[in-house]
Amino acid sequence: MSEIKDIGLYESGERKIQWVKANMPLLRALEEEFSADKPFKGLKVALSVHLEAKTAYLCRVLAAGGANMYITGSNPLSTQDDVAAALVKGGLNVFAKHGASAEEYHAHIEKVLECGPNVIIDDGGDLVNTIHNEYPDLTSGVIGGCEETTTGIIRLKAMENDGKLRFPMVAVNNAKCKYLFDNRYGTGQSVWNGINRTTNLIVAGKTAVVAGYGGGGEGVGTPGAALGGKGMVSGKGQKKGMEGGRGGGVPNRLGVGGGGRGVFI
Ligand SMILES: NC(=O)c1ccc[n+]([C@@H]2O[C@H](COP(=O)([O-])OP(=O)(O)OC[C@H]3O[C@@H](n4cnc5c(N)ncnc54)[C@H](O)[C@@H]3O)[C@@H](O)[C@H]2O)c1
User: What is the pTM of this model?
Assistant: First the structure.
């Protein structure tokens, strides 16, 4: 059972998944191991991620390990309909559409949780929050899970401090390699990729204001400077602002400066 835009889109989605597979040796090795050992046999896995080719291949690897996958996209704007179609064509359950409304997005989260998951893989905290708020009876079936991003971990910590979190969660974002390659380099690359495709304008000479100079902000600032942009960063506290200044930007407070034409990130 699935809810996607159009199953007929699967061929281009399949090509994208095969391409990333050819470039993801660690997941390929895990696929081989999981296919033989079936460590997730009989487990239902609810998963909410940016649904594109690389994460789709992760879904396939977990399924190869015996998991019954129930998949949604953590942000309707990053969901790729052709990739979702390829997953459904391969027999996985997907509830996600590019550009879904807020109501559709929430309904997809609910559909995924209604499987009664044993494991939750979350990006941003919506699966974990919704299961606690709307399906508290299902939390007893959850062995545990993992959370991908900074914001989701902030939400989890708040739940834990209030004594509300009912199962253990691994904070993937705290892994130094994840933080370096995803938050810093991955976000830096994809943010500028998106801006360049959308605006079709040259960056050199423009002012780019980056709000928040943590891992993501630093990753965005560095390629922006390499493209010739004049950087301004806004960090919480003087130190972060100064670090941004050293990276080629101008220490600044959000809302001050950046006048004229530029980019706000
Ligand atoms: N879409 C993705 O693929 C993806 C990947 C990684 C991170 N993220 C998201 O990007 C965001 C940043 O993540 P990060 O890992 O860089 O976090 P981080 O904690 O490393 O950095 C956040 C920075 O923002 C600053 N900050 C906080 N409040 C501020 C305010 N009011 N004004 C100015 N600065 C402020 C903090 O001082 C800190 O330096 C999070 O929401 C995270 O979930 C998205």
Answer: 0.91
